[in-house]
Automatic annotation (TrEMBL), chain A:
Protein's recorded name: Methanogen homoaconitase small subunit
InterPro entries linked to this entry: Aconitase/3IPM_dehydase_swvl, AconitaseA/IPMdHydase_ssu_swvl, IPMI_Swivel, LeuD, LeuD_type2/HacB/DmdB
EC number: 4.2.1.114
Location of the motif YLRT: 24-27
Natural source organism: Methanocella paludicola (strain DSM 17711 / JCM 13418 / NBRC 101707 / SANAE)
Source superkingdom: Archaea
UniProt family annotation: Belongs to the LeuD family. LeuD type 2 subfamily.
TrEMBL record, chain B:
Coiled-coil intervals, chain numbering: none
Protein task: Catalyzes the isomerization between 2-isopropylmalate and 3-isopropylmalate, via the formation of 2-isopropylmaleate.
Name of the protein this chain belongs to: 3-isopropylmalate dehydratase large subunit
Cofactor(s) listed: [4Fe-4S] cluster
Binding site for [4Fe-4S] cluster: 295, 353, 356
Domain of life, per lineage: Archaea
Family under the similarity heading: Belongs to the aconitase/IPM isomerase family. LeuC type 2 subfamily.
Reactions catalysed: (2R,3S)-3-isopropylmalate = (2S)-2-isopropylmalate
Length: 157, 412
């Protein structure tokens, strides 16, 4: 899987409450999560389809709410690149089919820069410079390639 | 041979488990509340699986927005009740029974040696009973509904030792915040915590639940207290099924921390849980609301300690008390604690999560501040533009008396 998009840059410990505030959780209509994505931290967050979030440590800390990765996905984010992720967010992102990559590119990037992510090769490219990222175990890559855990399980049936 | 987590996950996966291994573990109990069940059930249906793996091992408490706050929530809850009935899930605890983690403890599902997965980040609370309790999202929960199993990467474990007796006015919540201050909000990410030492041994089960509840605030996958005679006594006549306790066996820890219990009352200031200060540094900060409750500090012991300060006094700001369960509320009523709190001017709400996650029943206005016994002070957590300070029930009660952050030691 490869992605190319414009960067939205955030710091350390971006928590699930700012990704999608608690008051928006009570619906099964996933599109509305996208409308409120990152509302708690950045009211001007209006990504174009395919844009990429670049962040510091512990992205997605806090709640187990799966609406957090769903919100980013439905807002049009193709991939999140962070120094590290909170573990529940990490699982949830893979389960809903939102690709995530651990790479230390925070200092190398400005908001609006073009980021390229090659999931299979474990590479992030910014301004022609390549950075290595941690590669996911094969079975997690399979889940992502299927589009998430639900689709993965259906395909296995 | 390993940490408590390695021993439990090894048993649940049928082979030796070492930190770093990817394993598939059998899940003993799966918990999802009214909030997360909605997405979990949707994912389960989308998986095209017809029946849950074991309706007797799925527990669904209604606590996050219960009673329903509007028609959308009411409809989602109605659909959830109908699905649970159709799947013959007998352990559905409806409005008023209590907060999921408290219900899991009271009904005897939080048991030593078990693997308990909850669709709520604070499922690490079950570590107070020597269980491997961890939180996941809704789709993982759907996978458990379907198969009774889940993959895990076996975490490394950090050893945390706390020794000594608490000075007056200092409680399990204070040492918990003190530990978070040092380990930081991401210091235990992908790892488990094990708690040892004389302070932990002396802690009540309620205090141990407070401690393990906040393991996630350090990013931890689980926070575990080794089961002992106190655990056994709590579970007597309560455990949902037989259990065999697991302790560490010649473990290797990735890191060790040591704490002394001789500290001041602690307060976590906005907007990070590790922004922790001695009470002397924040005393006098104005608050508009005090909240005593939640899965962190809504138990009888917590209400009792708040009442010890509020007895014969009046609150100076709006003060909400939300018992963690019906059983806690009933005991508070029967023991006179509820009357003490009401006489002091507090409002007692129905058992549940209340405003902790900004859902309903006490959500704050922009520019307001709350002293709360809950577990998170994230930006916008209890309402956009409101500040949340975290402290113990004693600190919350003293703060209620003064309408500003106050040192509980002056009232004891």
């Amino acid at each position: 899987m490869k992605f190319r998009g414009k960067a939205w840059k955030y710091g350390d410990n971006v928590d699930t409450d700012v990704i999608i505030p608690g008051k928006y959780l009570r619906t099964a209509d996933f599109k509305t999560f996208g409308d409120h994505a990152m509302e708690g931290i950045d009211p001007r967050f209006k990504p174009e389809q395919g844009d990429i979030i670049v962040a510091g440590n512990n992205f997605g800390c806090g709640s187990s709410r799966e609406q957090a990765p769903l919100a980013l996905k439905y807002a049009g984010i193709s991939c999140v690149v962070a120094k590290s992720f909170a573990r529940i967010f990490f699982r949830n992102a893979i389960n809903v089919g939102l690709p995530i990559v651990e790479a230390d590119v925070f200092d190398a990037i400005q908001k609006g820069d073009i980021v390229e992510v090659d999931l299979d090769r474990g590479l992030v490219t910014i301004g022609g410079k390549e950075y290595t990222s941690t590669k996911l175990p094969e079975f997690l890559q399979d889940i992502l390639n299927s589009g998430g855990l639900v689709a993965y399980r259906r395909a296995k049936k | 041979m390993g940490t408590i987590t390695e021993e439990i996950l090894g048993r649940a996966s049928g082979k030796k488990a070492h930190a770093g291994d990817f394993i598939i573990a059998r899940v003993d109990y799966a918990m999802s509340h009214d909030g997360t069940s909605v997405l979990a059930v949707k994912a389960f249906k989308d998986m095209l699986v017809e029946k849950v793996w074991d309706p007797g091992r799925i527990i669904i408490p209604f606590d996050h927005l219960a009673p329903a706050n509007n028609e959308t929530t009411a409809l989602l809850q109605k659909e959830l009740r109908e699905w649970a009935a159709a799947q013959k899930i007998s352990h559905l605890y409806d409005v008023g029974e209590g907060i999921c983690h408290q219900v899991m403890a009271e009904k005897g599902f939080a048991l030593p040696g078990k693997v308990i997965v909850g669709a709520d980040s604070h499922s690490c609370t079950y570590g107070a009973f020597g269980a491997f309790g961890t939180g996941v999202g809704a789709t993982d929960m759907a996978e458990i509904y379907a198969s009774g199993k889940l993959w895990f990467r076996v975490p490394e474990t950090i050893e945390v030792t706390v020794d000594g007796r608490f000075p007056k006015g200092v409680t399990a919540k204070d040492i918990t915040l003190r530990i978070i201050k040092d380990i930081k909000t991401d210091g235990a990410a992908y790892k488990a915590l094990e708690f040892y030492g004389t302070t932990i041994e002396a802690m009540s089960m309620s205090g141990r639940m407070t401690l393990c509840n906040m393991a996630i605030e350090m990013g931890a996958k689980a926070g575990i207290v080794p089961p002992d005679a106190k655990t056994g006594a709590y579970l007597k006549d309560r455990s949902a099924e037989p259990y065999s306790p697991v302790i560490a066996n010649d473990p290797t820890y990735c890191d060790s921390y040591h704490f002394d219990s001789n500290i001041s009352p602690q307060v976590a200031c906005p907007i990070d849980v590790d922004n922790v200060h001695d009470i002397e540094e924040v005393e006098g900060t104005h608050v508009d609301q005090v909240l005593i409750g939640s899965c962190t500090n809504g138990r009888l012991e917590d209400l009792e300690s708040a009442a010890s300060i509020l007895k014969g006094r009046k609150v100076k700001c709006r003060t909400l008390v939300i018992p963690a369960s019906r059983s806690v509320m009933l005991e508070a009523v029967n023991s006179g604690i509820a009357a003490t709190l009401l006489s002091a001017g507090a409002t007692i709400c129905n058992p549940g999560c209340g405003p902790c996650l900004g859902g309903h029943m006490g959500v704050m206005a922009e520019g307001e501040a709350c002293m709360s016994t809950t577990n998170r002070n994230f930006k916008g957590r209890m309402g956009k533009g409101a500040d949340v300070y975290l402290g113990s029930p004693l600190t919350a009660a003293a703060t209620a008396v003064e309408g500003k952050i106050a040192d509980p030691r002056r009232y004891l």
